[in-house]
Every structure is written in structure tokens, then in C-alpha cells.
Give the backbone structure.
Amino acid sequence: MTNFTSTEKSQRPWGFFIFGLVIGIILLGTFVFQTRDLFCGPNIVPPEEIDLSTFWETWNYLEENYMDAEEMDQRQMIYGAISGMVNSLGDPHTSFFDPQESLRFQEDLSGEIEGVGMEVGLRNGAITVIAPLKETPAARAGLRAGDQIIKIDQEATYNMSLDEAVRMIRGPRGTEVILTIWRPEDLEEKDFTLIRDKIQIPAVEWKLIDDNIAHLQIYHFHQGLSADFQKVAAAIIKSPAEGIIVDLRNNPGGYLDVAIDVAGWFLPMGQLVAIEEFASGERQEFYAYGNAKLAPYPTLILVNPGSASGSEILAGALRDNRNLRIVGEKSFGKGSVQQTFPLQDGSMVKITIAKWLTPDGHLIDGVGLEPDITVELDLDKYLELDEDTQLDKAVELLKDIIK
């Protein structure tokens, strides 16, 4: 299947309010993954033109001179060297995972993890909360989208990679982590103490608003969404709903195949969903293949800065193909493609290989989707009165369309 965060890739056969990963974190950024047949074995020979003499010279000096040489862990030294090589590219979405991290990464995509329940990403070089999940330690502590994490357990995050931050924030259920948060509007630092817990990542929920509006909230395009979405779609079709609000706020992405599957409920078979563009200029196109049973419904789309990757692809596909309006705030702008390459010892490297474009050819990465109707969330009203100003505006607009 193909996964997005922060958009990224794995193996595939064919290759708001309150949610989000890297799983970027969840603790997401959030990814698009695709399946490819890969081989990585023990007999790979490095190119002859690569001079590794300095590496081995340093290795030998360490073994011969390091004071605590008996405590040296050669495997960890190799992993550290690989991480340094990958990090030297300066791409926050190209990463190396040791076997334990690789396993954790796969668990993230299954929909259940242990952590504090939030998605984080890099914004202007800062580790930033993209979205807390509802009913998780992060949400209960009062963390908000846009919070900058400047310290983790008193260790500064300046120049820290996203994956390293994820590793430090994640941890076994019942353990404690202290996050030091900077909120530009408050002009002060604040410590938040969170107790890690098991985080069950929901896929989709819906409810009927004002008797005829289906509020369809898609939290993440993880493995369980396709089956859950089929049940939700059937319920909407049987309901009195006359219009649909597709709420993608704080949705960090997930598997590409799943996003295409969902698009197929809204688009006729054969319509273009997304374009993958490689450095060579070569393009690969992805098309809807579903039943389009939700296509007859008047529909609006909700996005915000926590909408990334797969959610941006879906929103862009619906706007470009059906001229559906997007309401809310500018999306995150995660439109690069990462492919995962499994390594022989259970570790894994995730490499940026391409960028995503909407069907009309609009670049997503670093740009995001501008809403047709901009509505900022009034946090005070939401926190004090449980009033969702963005959703209220979408309901108002959709009712005008239905009339």
C-alpha cells in the first residue's frame, strides 16, 4: 500500500479538529507510501568510485584509542554512521530507522501506538505540533496545533531531526515526558508534563447535523479506513443526508491506496486523483476506481494547517475534478513522496523520491492548498463553548447549496 505523512511510500500491489502523525508523529507528518518490489541483500557492493577510506580510518582510530573501547557497540556505530549519511541530505522526510524504530513505524500505520497522542512536523525548522488526537494525553494537557516544542525532557530541539524528536516523545505506556512549549502569541515558554498511554488511532466518524447535513470526519488514511469508510458511506446513503462536509482537518495522511479508494466514492471511475512527478520529469498518474456513490451529494471540504499529504491529495482531487469548494485555513503543504526500502537486518530507510501534484498540476509540497473560503478557528469559542466556527460556516454554505 502507499502511505503519506507529513506523503510517503511503502510496498503496494499496484502501485478539527482534533487529529493527526508522524505518524509523523503521533505520537506522524505525515506520508504517502507505495509498494514496490525491492531487493536489499548482503552482497551489495558499494560503487568503486566511493572512497570510504576516511570512514574506516576513523573506525580504526576509535577501536584502537577510545578510552571505553570495550563498551563500543559496533552495530550502533554503523546505525549512527548511516543516520549521519542520511541526515546530511538536509531533507527532514528522508530518514533511517533501526530495526526497533522500523517496527514502531509499521505499528504507527496499523492504527495503534504508545505515546502522547499528537502529530508533529517541521515548520520553519522548528518541531511543531500539527494536531493533538482527541482523548489522548496531548489533548488533555491542552497542547494545540502550532505549538513549538523547544525542549523534550529539558533537551533543546534546536537542530534536532523530526525522527529524533519522535523517538524522545514516544515511549512505553505509563512513563512521563516533559515538553517545553513556545506559543508565539503568549511570548513565553511553558512546560507540559504528559504521561504516555496507548493511542488508538480512529479512522473515520460521521454525524448528522441539522437533520440533513452529513459531517464526515476522516482522521487518517491508515489500513483500517477502507473497510470503515464503506460502512460509514452506507450509513450516510441510508440517512436523510442531502449534503456532505468532508472534514480533513488535522488529517496527516496515510496510505495512498486508501486515499484513492476514498476518492472513488466521490469521483467517477477513471478520473485523475493525483500526479507523482520525479526529478527526471517523468510522471505517474493515479486514477479513481470506486463506485462514486457519494458523488451526487453536494459536498464541501474542510482543511486546516494540520491537513497534510493524503488529505491534501484528496481535497485537491475533489476540487480539481468537481470544482468543490474548500473551507477553512491553508493546508500543511506536505507533498513530497517517500519510499521505504527494507534492509536485511530489519532496519529501513525512507527516501524522498518525488513530489505530488493535484490533477490540474498544482504543486502541494511547501505550498499547500489555499481555501476558497478562509475561516479561522476561534479557539476561545471552541474551548469555552464547544463552538466550531469553521464547521458552522461550512454548514451554512452547504445549506445554501442544497436550497
Summary: The first helix runs from residue 53 to 65. The first strand starts at residue 4 and ends at 5.
